[in-house]
Structure formats: C-alpha cells, structure tokens
Amino acid sequence: MASASAGDNSSSFSTFYGSNPAFQISEDKSDHMDIHKQRQHASQLLAAILEMKDELHLIDTQLLVRNCVYPCHQAILAAGSPYFSEIISGKNNQTSKGLIEMHENKLEPKQVQHIINYVYTGSVTMSHENAANLLHACNNHKIFKGKVVESALRDYISRQTLNEVSNSGTSSTECFKEFNYALDILKALNLQRLDCEFTDIVIQVGDESFSCHKIVLAASSAYFKAMFSSQMREMREGIIILHGLHPAVMRTLINYTYTGKLTIGTADAQEMMATASFLHHTSAMLACSEFMTSELHPSNCLGMLQFAQDVGCQELYKHALWFSLAHFLNELEYDEFNNMSADLLSRLIEDDELNVNKEEQVYEAVMQWIHHQKEQRQYHLPKLIEKVRLPLIDAAYTSRFIESDSLIKRWSSVVMVLDEAKKMKLAACRGEKIDDIRMKLRFSMKKEVMVIVGGFTDNQQCVRDVRCYNPENGAWIDLAPFPGRNQRFQCVAVNNNIYVIGGQAENQKAHLSETLSDVWKYDSHQDKWTQVASLNKPRHGHGAAVLDGKIYVVGGKIGWSKKFNEVERYDPHLNIWTTVGRIKGNFVEKPIVLR
Questions:
Q1: What is the CA angle 310-267-248, rounded to 5?
Q2: Residues 156 and 231 both lie in one domain
Q3: What pLDDT sits at residue 9?
Q4: Are 306 and 347 in contact (CB under 8 A)?
Q5: In what order do the strands lie in the sheet with 528-532?
Q6: Do 217 and 165 share a structural domain?
Q7: If residue 133 lies in a helix (H) or strand (E), which one and from where to where?
C-alpha cells in the first residue's frame, strides 16, 4: 500500500473554514448549488485519455493484429466497444497478460486502427477503401456502441455508389463524429466503477475505500498522474492511502470525476476546493469556483481572494479580485478588511481599477487598517503610503489631515514620500512631464479633463505628444503618444475614448500631402492607441461631432481642390462607417455640427 499525505494542506483547510467560514450566504441565496458540466467534463477527460494513449502512459492492454501491435487501455476499449468488452471480460477469453490476439478476425490492421481511433475519440474517418470492411465487421461483430456508426457507414457507401452510377467520379473522405460519445464513455466508465469492473486502483481515505481506474484519475488529476507514473512497489499492489483528507469530500470529487455532476454548498465548498487544489483536479476546481463566485459579497470577498491565492485557483482569484476592487468602499464596514494581510491591501490600492471617488478615500482606508492593530502594523505604513496616489489628494486635505498626523510624522520615510508628492504636483502644474503612476487618475474617478493630441511646434514641426490636463489640481500628465501619420485631423471623444479621424500625411521627399482615411482610437482604460475602421472616403478640412453615442463626419476635401459635402456616421460598437447623406448647398470649410 502507498501512503500519501496532504501535508500542510490538511491543516490549512480548517484555517479558512470551520466555525468561522470565509463567506456567508445572503438570505436571498441558496446554501448549495448543483453544477452540471457532464458534456464539457467528459470531452476534456476523453481528450486527456487519448493524449495518454499517445504517450503510452498507463497502457495495460495490447491488441495484436497480424504483426501489428496497438497499445491501449482495457477500461476504455471495454467502454467504447461491446466487442472488446466481451473479449477483455473473458466471455471470449483471448487475453493473456494484457495481450489480445485478433488473428481469427478478417480485419486488417488499418481497420483495427480506425476502430481504436473511434473508441478514443468517437469519430470515424470513412473512405472508399475502408467503409465496406468496417461495415462488414459490424455485421460479424458488435464493434461499435449502438447503430449510429453503422448507419453513417451505410449512408456513406450509398452516396459513393450513386456517384459511381452518375459517373461523377468523386470519391471523398468523410469524418463522422458522435455528438454524445464522450458522455456515453463517461457513463460506461462510471458503471464499470460501480461494478468494480476493470478498476485497477483503490483509493483509501479514512475508513472509506474507492475502487477506480488509474487512467480516469490520471486524466483528471495531475497529482494522480504523477503518482501513477512512479515505479513504487505499493503502486503495483493497487492501494493508495491518502491522509489528511475527508472521506465525504473525496467521495464527492470521485463522483464528479465519473459523472461531471457536483452538488456543492457552504458547508463543504472551501474544503472541496482545497482538496481539488491538492489533487490538481482542474475541472473540479473550476466547478467549485463557479459556486464560490456566485456567493461573493463585500463581507467575504477579501477572504475568498486570499483563499483563492493560497490554493492557486486563478479563476476564483480573478473574480474575487474584480469584486474586491469594485466594492472596496463597502468592504471597509466588515471585519475582513481589518483582518486582511498587508500584501493583499497593497495589491488592491495599487490597482487602477480600484473603485473610489477620490484618493482621500484610499488614504483613509490605509489608516483604518493600520490603526486596527497600530503597534504591529505601523511598520507597513512606509510601503503602503507609496501605493496611495498622494499627488491626487487635495492640498488642503493633505495639510490638515495627513501632514499633521502624529503617526505620519513619526516615520521619516513617509514624510519623504509626502514631500516627493508635493514636488511632483508642482512640477506637473508647471507643465513638466511626469512619468509616475501616482499622477494617474483611477478609472472610477469621474472628472472632466482636457486632452491635447499632437499639433505643431513654432517651427511647424509635427509632434505626436498626447497630454492630459486636470483642472481640479492644475496638473499635466503624459498619455501614450499618438502613433498614426495623421496631421490636420479632427478629434472627438466618445465613452471616455478619443478618436482621431482623417487628415493629411506629409511626404517630405515628394513635397506632397496625402489625404487620409485612417481613424485611430485611444482607450483611456488601457492608455493605448489602436487603429479602427477607416472612413469610406479620405478627407481633411472636415468637421466632426458626436450625437447619441455615434460619430458624424461632415464634408472635407481630397487634396486642395476636390471638395464634397458627404456625411459619414461611425458606430463604435460595430466599428463601421456608413455614408448617411450629404449637406445641401455650397461647400463649408471645417463645418461644425451642434446638438
């Protein structure tokens, strides 16, 4: 018998759960959820088993046809083909030491290969050369499950015969795939498990034992795959003892592995996730994550976020992080905020997505966390204060509440950060370029700002700088420079994004100007420019305006002589420009549309 321990994981399970669970259920939510992922789970499992066959991993059977040997897995052959099930189970006893001799059959090695591919994939490649032989094999033996493949073979042969009669001369290869095949295989494997048929490993947890297939456990769990790859004597004896795990949780996970169905609730969700993580059972972790994500609340999201990080569940971590950032101010009311780690607090307050109205709220949150255990936590203040975007805080607030705070004045390094923020703010007000994250507004800070895109110097040299002016504090900050060739363009803002439309590009060598249809979009969330759909007609000297979330471009010129009054409309969601009409009357230079 092999003995494996969950090690530190067995003790860490109770750290988050027990009498004080990491999350609580709201009154309008159920305390459990039935998760059904049968088809997706079965498809992933069968794909993993096929990969292990190709890697010759956990092979326990070999098919001998003429001089060809095909390595396979007994349980999969029996689940996928009634014919192989009969042979392996001994009703037609041809097996000896994992070898199945098929000399008496009239199947060619190529036909056997097609059947094996079907067993592992549920698909059959039909061709003029193999269809008749496969159908003949179906008539002599119950090769395939059900009659679906036989019907597909007959239909294919009929079509080929009609083609020959009509002298079309076409002989195509077709691939037939059973839609529910992977699910049928999973059901067959589960029946084998319940009947202890073709099972080759016993998992013992506490006082419960579970008969399973190594190939199924290895296909779903990286932990078991690594364990079964070892050459230990205990592995060959077929019993694995796992310490530190709960039998009921293990039973649920094994049932999920064989069915794709999982009933999970608040009483066992965290322990089930921790066990799935220990076993590296990715599919089960995602199923647990689905339930835990549905239970996110400002009172539990921080504990859930820390837990997701500890067990290595990226899916839960992603959702818990987004929720924690979005509901940051609500979380201040609950114990979890005061009890979170300094690293987690630092991770939250450095994020652009932190949902606050003003930076003063971030500073106050940090000080609330510090004062909860002042003597122990004051040592984290220098690192945390660096994550607060102090230049965004109102000068009067800084003077009254921050600089006068006795704890702030106690730390010289914190005072230096304050002085640096004041200098940074003054430099930005003078128009100097400041490349520092602390000067950047968070996405939730809804303030109207002015953005200048490109332009010309006094010497008529084109510049690509993009600068943002915040009238609230008088600071200028640099945004991503404009990458396009456009000059003399029109510029509008839609949904906090900026669009540069049309214009001209100078050809210095030819001393000519090219009229452009290029359109560029600035994403204010990503600080990034991307090129979007071009105008239907290149133009400069045009007007542009926004109406009901759509951009309208009016008139313009191509070169310096061809003038027109056509109107185009751009839909930002569809990324499409549409010509919608023309302005009647004479050409207007740089027309402006007003609402």
A1: 90
A2: no
A3: 34
A4: no
A5: 490-494, 497-501, 519-523, 528-532
A6: no
A7: helix 131-140
CATH number at residue 7: 3.30.710.10
The continuous run of DSSP H or E covering 250 comes out as helix 247-259
Tell me: do 524 and 573 sit in the same domain.
Answer: yes
Between CA 182 and CA 429 the distance in angstroms is 65
Q: What is the pLDDT of residue 134?
A: 82
Q: How many helices (H) and strands (E) does the chain have?
A: 25, 25
Instruction: Give this prediction's pTM.
Output: 0.74
Q: Does one domain contain both 170 and 210?
A: no
Which of 234, 146, 214 lies closest to 185, judged by CA?
Answer: 146
Are both 484 and 546 inside the same structural domain? yes
And the tokens for 143? 């090769």
Which of 182, 211, 240 lies at the terminal end of a domain, its last residue? 182
Burial 544-562 (b: 16+ CB within 10 A, else e): bbbeeebbbbbbbbbeeee
**Taking 50 as the threshold, does the pLDDT of residue 91 lie above it?**
no
**CA end-to-end span of the chain:** 81
Q: Is residue 357 part of a domain?
A: no
Query: In angstroms, rounded to a whole number, what is the distance separating the alpha carbons of residues 327 and 593?
Result: 40
The residue type at 500: V
What residues are paired with 145 via a beta bridge? Answer: none
CA distance linking residue 529 with residue 523, whole number of Å: 6
* Nearest by Cα to 87 from 67, 105, 69, 110: 105
Which residue's entry shows tokens 């740089």? Answer: 590
The Cα angle at residue 472 between residues 467 and 474, in degrees rounded to 5: 50
How many domains is the chain built from? 3
**Residue span of the structural domain in which 563 resides:** 480-582
Percent of the chain with pLDDT over 90: 53
Q: Is 337 exposed, middle or buried (0-12, 13-18, 19+ CB in 10 A)?
A: buried
Partner residues linked to 296 by β-bridges: none
* Nearest of 93, 84, 75 to residue 193 by alpha carbon: 75
Nearest in space to 299 (alpha carbons), one of 349, 341, 340, 348:
340
Q: CA separation (Å) from 369 to 291, 320, 365, 512?
A: 30, 20, 6, 63
Alpha-carbon Rg for the chain, nearest whole angstrom, is 34
Which of 14-18, 157-161, 566-570 is the least confident region?
Answer: 14-18
Q: Scan for tokens 């066992």, then name that residue.
A: 268
Q: How are beta strands 497-501 and 490-494 bridged, if at all? A: antiparallel
The pLDDT of 572-587, averaged and rounded, is 85
Q: For helices 247-259 and 269-278, what crossing angle results, to 10°? A: 70
My answer on whether 539 and 485 are in the same domain is yes
- The answer to whether residues 384 and 413 touch, using CB atoms and an 8 Å cutoff, is no
Q: Coil, helix or strand for 36?
A: strand
Beta bridge partners of 239: 202
Q: Which residues of 416-427 are buried (b: 16+ CB within 10 A; e: fewer)?
A: ebbeebbebbeb
Query: What is the helix, strand, coil percentage profile of the chain, to 5?
Result: 45, 25, 35
Check residue 477 and give its pLDDT. Answer: 83
Q: Say how far apart CA 309 and CA 586 lie, in whole Å.
A: 66
DSSP state, residue 491? E
Give the H/E segment covering residue 382.
Answer: helix 381-387
Whether 27 shows a pLDDT value over 50: the answer reads no
Whether the CA torsion 277, 281, 285, 286 is positive or negative: it is: positive
